[in-house]
Amino acid sequence: MSESSAYDVIVVGSGPAGLMAALRSAALGKKVALVESEAQIGGTGRGSAYGIWIPQNRLLRDRGIEEDKSACLRWMCKHAYPNQYTVDAPFYGIPELDYRQFSAYFENAGQMLDFLEDESGVEIVFMRNHGDDQDTYDANRALMKARGLPDDPDLARALPDYHPEDEDNEVPVGRYVNFRTDMMAITLYFIAMFRQMDAKLLVSALYEMLRPSVLLQVARGFFSKNDEGAFYYCGAGIRMTRAFKALLLKYRVDVLTSITVDDVLFNASGAVSGVKVRPAGKNVSGNTRELHAPNVVLTVGGFAHNQALLNKYASEFPVQRCASRPTCDGALLETLEDRVKLGHMADVWQTESLLALTRNAVVASDFIGSTNVWHLNGDSAIVVDQRGQRCYNEMAQYSMRSKWYRSPDKEIAVYVFDERTIRRFGGLLGTWSAHLPYLAGVDAVRPSFVVAGDSLDDLTDNLREHLVPFESLVNCSLSADFADNLAASVTRFNGFARDGVDEDFGRGGSLANLGWRAKRAPDNHFPNKTMYPISEDGPYYAMVLCLSCFNTKGGFQTDEHARVLSQHEQPIEGLYAAGNCAASPSNTGYVLSTIGPAMTFAWMAANHIAEH
């Protein structure tokens, strides 16, 4: 080893968890080093909307809303462990450790957010619907009234929770918040997205941005008193990374970029003593050195870019693409695997992607908005399986839709829609990540991942041709009767659309189906805003979907103080973890989501270090 440095705390990784761990530790008077293997800080969070689920947040407290901890914990446990939850069992039937983490999150998340808002000066705001959607606002108000919440117009425009109708969800709107963005961050966000597009897609996207309906959304985002519109949270991750950077400078944190941590060092008694580092990209013994500290906080992300670990722990998921940074490779997890306890390794933070884009190096970058299909907004549209049969609720959140793929024989699904859906919901901003940015009927600017056909039979033939290049990679063959089943699926769906009730999957029947969608199309006069009869004449279009993730969910098992546990389930002195490298108590659900617990448990790690 060529040199040695001493700190109180070394934070490894600079995503939202690492930034918070470094900031909080430094603010509490510790000498801190933040080590990042990339050339710039921010991690996957740079491209994120920085949406966070925070109970007891300031916006709720300002409205006099006091949450009941017991009800909130029941809601968390129920939807993290739907098959184990028992209301009268100890810890509601879930593992005690996960229960303690849920309890700690409830107590600390709001305090963490207060600290960050005060330090950064960036205001938190309610996350919003994607447009001025009165259907959702009316449903919000009705549920708020039923829960005894104040009739606050700003709260009524907030995004609802997952599972908002659950009787234990006493605050079904207002827990999702994010940070107000600005023009510079918005501009940088779109530059990053546009740089990932090929020429055809870029021309199409720029054309779509000039459409009056899109310009109206832009105007709403900038000028509406309710802060709505498609630009509402674009670039929030960029702005927050910029704010963190200034705060790290203020508190004199040593930010060491382009440095890889190869190992965590321990003393003779098994306590942490530092880390072994080297310049990123170099693996020569002469380049290594040691940084010494009695406390190390690991925030290195998941192992989604490590196929060996995926095969070992999460083989159930036929994941085709991951939206996290390439540095989320699980290298330190492999290094420490024999020393620490691991948890929730078989799960991922799942979503969908377009199969074609998972193989496109230009478009399918690691910027989080580029490949994932967060929403399927089209009302005259359905998703079918490889037999042509409708397979799930298209209006469900991405984490719910993607659960359908948890089977080896369900590797793709097909999103089928008509020309009207493109005209009403298409465009870079209309569907956001459903990738329909082109003028319907102009094949010159139709992206290659959008398959067209004049009839359902023609569409089926073209889909088969489209899938040929992927046959050696995934099971994507269509059944011989795909076209006939697809026609029957369209006919059945159209009947539901006219009646307003989806008898198969309950589409549009929950507030959660409404709140994350685009608003009702102006020509949709049917009872259910999420359904409109698919054209009987064509042309038709399709995109092939597959399972992807934005990171893994398992990793270092930690306690309620974010301390990493040994294989004997005892805290390892001085070793902490937060973010996607730590096991998430959310289990198979989407409880807490990702960035909120990443920052909250990082905050708790820093507090524990300062107190002990």
Quick synopsis:
This protein has about 600 residues and is an alpha/beta fold. The protein has helices at about 15-25, 60, 70-80, 95-120, 135-145, 155, 185-195, 200-210, 210-225, 235-250, 305-315, 330-335, 400, 420-425, 455-465, 480-500, 510-515, 595-610, and strands spanning about 5, 10, 30-35, 50-55, 125, 175-180, 255, 260-265, 270-280, 290, 295-300, 340-345, 350-355, 380-385, 410-420, 450-455, 540-550, 555, 565, 570-575. A hairpin with a 5-residue loop joins strand 8 (about 260-265) and strand 9.
Write the layout of secondary structure elements.
Elements: E1 4-6, E2 9-12, H1 16-27, E3 32-35, E4 52-53, H2 58-61, H3 69-80, H4 96-120, E5 124-126, H5 134-146, H6 153-156, E6 176-179, H7 183-195, H8 199-209, H9 212-223, H10 236-250, E7 254-256, E8 259-266, E9 272-279, E10 289-292, E11 295-298, H11 307-313, H12 331-336, E12 342-343, E13 348-354, E14 381-384, H13 398-401, E15 412-418, H14 419-425, E16 451-453, H15 456-467, H16 482-499, H17 511-515, E17 540-552, E18 555-556, E19 563-565, E20 571-577, H18 595-611
Parallel strand pairs: 1-10, 2-3, 2-11, 3-7, 11-20
Antiparallel strand pairs: 4-6, 5-6, 8-9, 9-10, 12-18, 13-17, 14-15, 15-17, 16-17, 19-20
Helix pairs in contact: 1-10, 1-18, 3-4, 4-18, 7-10, 15-16
